[in-house]
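Thread: quick sanity check before group meeting

JM: Hey all, I'm pulling together slides for Thursday and realized we never actually wrote out the predicted structure for the chain we discussed last week. Dropping the sequence here so it's in one place. If anyone has concerns about the input, flag it before I start.
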Amino acid sequence: MSNMSKWALVGVVTAVACQTMAQFPQPASDFKVNEKFRPKLFKQFFGDIVNVPDGMAQDKQGNFYVSAPNFVKQEYPGIIMKLDKKTKQWSIFCSGLLNPDTKMAFPMGLEFGEDGNLYYADNQYFTDKGYKSRVIRVVVDPKTGEALRLEPVVENIKLANAVRCRGNALYFTDTFFDLPDKNLGGIYRVPFSAFKDGPVKILNKEDYAKDPYCLDVASCTPNHRGDNAASDGMCFDKAGNIYTGNFGDGHFYVMKMKPDGSYGKLETLVNDTKLLPCVDGVNYYEKKNWVFIADSERNAVLYWDINNQKLEMFWINDDTDGADGLLDQPCECMVWDGKLIISNFDYTFPGLKNAKNDSVHSLSFINLP
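JM (edit): ok, ran it. Output follows.
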């Protein structure tokens, strides 16, 4: 049995036990589900070619993309799918670039840069924790929109997770530092110019304080799940501020941009597992000035109201297989075509409401106010 298969089995067994032994934190307010925001099915991927949907992105033409690291059934390679906005047809955009050491590819967070190319996190951590993760650039033909080639641009990452592009720089999170007695994750910024002649190799984690590309680190505290995963999702608001949060304990932060374009240190917005026990993917909704937050633990989506500096529940549901569109371990959310699209990771970890990896692989959507 592979290490991934063993981890998956442990996760399923532990999660089932937690279902019967523990109460999941509930919304702190008197929130009642508003049925007009009930999630619906956006896409079900039949078969197992997409068995773990994850990150999402859109190109300049408005076409939709979703990555599939396919952790549950690794006999299916990690791929990136594309939905053509005009024709409504799905196709395989590209397969992930195989790591030369692990011979595997696990595409996760992704985003298009202003150069028209697609950048994605290749998360090798669950196969090899020895700095095998990378950020990959998919060079895209500007005329046809097809993938021409794939090439690494950042290397020596532990667990590459979220990827964002802004201006002339690439941003990404590294969720595990694996340092003794410290549960750290980091937020990195690498200018495009740094890898114009080849991939950048960031420093090993014991030297993170000296790494010119490391903006700041987040720390995950002991929590009810025993999960020490730190910085996970990441997004920008219209002012250029960065929002990120820990998968393990739900600690949610902002990193404010200074007038000169540099960034200050992480500032806490929410640090209460009863309010927010898990932050996975985050996405900005400009019309409302909200940051949507995927809460994988509770099958929920929340939002941070920037104007009012307040956290609100948007939707929450019980354990489900997602066949009817309800949330099934939501990991990412993205505003696209007037809808909030949510990817259902459905690859359970200890302590999540999602008790098993089922045969339904889906994306949900919620019509936005």
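AS: nice. The CA atoms of residues 319 and 354 lie 5 Å apart. Confidence is low (pLDDT under 50) at residues 1-29.
JM: adding both to the slides.
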